[in-house]
Design brief:
The chain has twelve helices and nine strands. The strands form three sheets. Strands 5, 6, 7, 8 and 9 form a five-stranded antiparallel β-sheet that branches. Helix content is 40%, strand content 16%. Helix 8 runs antiparallel to helix 9 and helix 10 runs antiparallel to helix 11.
Length: 373
């Protein structure tokens, strides 16, 4: 995971692996279809990520494992996506049950119900799973736990919570309690607003000039600003990032970023682009083959609760909001990028390579399969 494709090409040829370009519109559509199926089972649902959701199954008729199989079969039949279902009393255990259904337990048809297993069965299973598979246990925590003799889920589960808190954090303490069946993480009925918004992409070809980088940064800023307005927030700062290709160490390397505070928090694409390009000019250096650029919006706060300022012109703010609303409406109706700032440019030399893009069968009329007699 995360390895560049050129390092895997020989392995792909050996095993007949087919490669496809990233198709984000298709991913988002498939994700929303799966979520709609899940909502048919229970309204108590948290969409955790594009490919993962938590459901509350309390009160549903029938055995939980059978409900899990029905969920899995319906998604496969209606959407064509294979999924695994993990059932347990806490979110951390449910994540672990999903892992077990996917990679540990054979013959369970992609469904694992910890609630149906005995205490001895769970202990034996947890003793066979590395602690690194526990939700929230990253590489550094895994190494520290190993130094303390904790290498399996069962060993972490048996550790005193107070001792874990003393040597690590209250977050890992909650994880230990969750592994023992004590729910510490509630279901998020509404996905919380993001505290930071990032947009970045690798280039299809190396970019050397400031103009190409500027178009890329303006495009990423435009996308980030759309997300910002979608959650009705404004940003107080924007960070610009550029870097060369770390997978070509024989070439000169350069990796820099610049945080640009805004005079006033804003969600106006034009103001954000102006700040981002100012930051880009400060960090750009000629003579490097740039591989990636991106931006990150930070200092986010709700639009209606931002601190007022005597330096802000109310009429200008009103016109700015109306313009952004019109632009978002046009792009929503006619497709992203139908109306965009001139700073994003017209060239595509810096955009990511997508020669092997799969068809957008579910999101574009012109990509629908045609049957002829």
């Amino acid at each position: 995971m995360g390895a560049p494709w050129f390092q895997l090409q020989d392995l792909a040829k050996q095993h007949g692996i087919r490669a496809f370009s990233s198709n984000y519109a298709l991913y988002a559509d498939m994700s929303s279809r799966v979520v709609e199926i899940l909502r048919g089972f229970t309204p108590s649902l948290e969409v955790y990520s594009i490919d993962e959701s938590f459901l509350v199954l309390d009160g549903l008729p029938g055995a939980l494992e059978e409900i899990g199989r029905e969920i899995r079969e319906r998604i496969v039949r209606w959407v064509g996506l294979p999924v695994c279902v993990g059932i347990a009393g806490t979110k951390t255990l449910a994540k672990l049950a999903n892992h077990a259904a996917k990679k540990v337990l054979a013959g369970h048809d992609g469904v694992c119900d910890f609630e149906a297993m005995t205490s001895d069965e769970l202990s034996a299973l947890f003793a066979s799973i590395p602690v690194s598979e526990v939700w929230g246990v990253g590489h550094r925590i895994d190494e520290r736990l190993a130094d303390m003799g904790i290498g399996t889920v069962q060993q972490l589960r048996a550790a005193p919570p107070a001792w874990i808190r003393e040597h690590f954090s209250v977050v890992l303490e909650r994880t230990v309690r969750e592994l023992n069946g004590v729910s510490c993480l509630s279901l998020e009925d509404v996905t919380p607003d993001k505290q930071q918004i990032m947009a970045s992409r690798s280039f299809g070809h190396p970019v050397f000039d400031l103009e190409g980088l500027s178009e890329s940064v303006a495009s990423h800023t435009t996308r980030a600003a759309e997300k910002l307005r979608a959650q009705r927030h404004v940003a107080g700062a924007i960070t610009v990032m550029i870097r060369s290709n770390p997978f070509k160490p024989w070439e000169p390397q350069y990796n820099r970023s610049e945080v640009v505070p805004l005079p006033e928090p804003s969600a106006d694409t034009r103001e954000l682009i102006q700040a981002a390009l100012w930051g880009l000019r400060r960090i750009y250096r000629s003579g490097y083959a740039y591989k990636k650029a991106g931006v990150m919006l930070s200092g986010l706060e709700p639009e209606l609760r931002r601190q007022g300022s005597l330096l802000v012109d109310p009429e200008r703010e009103r016109k700015s909001a109306a313009l952004m609303q019109a632009m978002d409406h046009i792009n929503e109706k006619w497709g992203r990028g139908s109306l965009r700032p001139l700073a994003t440019g017209f060239g595509a030399s810096w955009k990511m390579r997508r020669e092997k893009l799969s068809p957008d069968w579910t999101t574009r009329w012109d990509a629908l399969p045609r049957v002829t007699g």
